Give the backbone structure.
Amino acid sequence: MNNLTQRILVAAVAIPIIVFICMAGGLYFFGFIAIVSAVALREFYALAEAKGAKPLVVFGLIGGFFVNLSFYHVRLRTFLTGIFEARGITIPFPSQAQLLVITLLIIVIVFSIRELFRDKGSAVLNLSTTLFGILYVSLFFGTFIGLRELFVPADFPVLRYFPSITNLADQYVLARIYKWGGYTVISVFAMIWICDSAAFHAGSAIGKHKLFPRVSPNKSWEGAAAGFIFAILSALAAKYLVLEYLSVGSAVLIGGIVGTIGQLGDLSESLMKRDAGVKDSSTLIPGHGGAFDRFDSLLLVAPCVYLYIDYILFS
């Protein structure tokens, strides 16, 4: 079975599953992203090990999970405060930003202490690769969880989009908002995949000027331009099909983020693999490489889209 056939078969199976998980949201989406994040982080640590580092793998995976969990803030707060209030205890709960800072602070302290008693290779190299992996992989994947959770009504500016409603607990409105969250993360996936496909096919057909030959010799400026254009077109299509809360300008901006930052994410991961002397981060996904390979563009796109929607669009 050739590589293209494997890619098509995997996509045919995986895409419906991913769509279902994105629309379901909640624990399904959190669990999916947390698992993908852990696998990608382990693959990143394998690249670091190929360069002589000895990252704190188990500690990193545990720390990465708690970083992911900090973006599940609204539901986590509701769950924990409910438990304490049932026992007559009122506790202050940190904001999402505070929870993330607390989590990262604990990670740095615990990892530093662990490395004190380890004596394996370079402590600077070990801690640097362990912590960078959490920031680059776990934190950025976590923002994708945060993006999906922005559409929990507690964090969504309901009255801006439904000014005529009198009941903020209107189940139709709440369900519609949560669907927007599912459509948003699916659309981001689709924009990335369309951008990648357009860049590949245009680059193969008309690519003459190398984009970054030292890192990825097959990529061209023509392919990158096609990817950028199709990312914007796919964002506009998503706006008119399912993302009615977006303005045309917001859709173009998000498409532009995917078309530029997404391709940069792909190049950054290629640089790491080339430095480590490997073709793929793993062979986990037939025809696609590893989780780090498959979601490399998302790692840089997710935080940019999340910050734009949360701090600009919904502010």
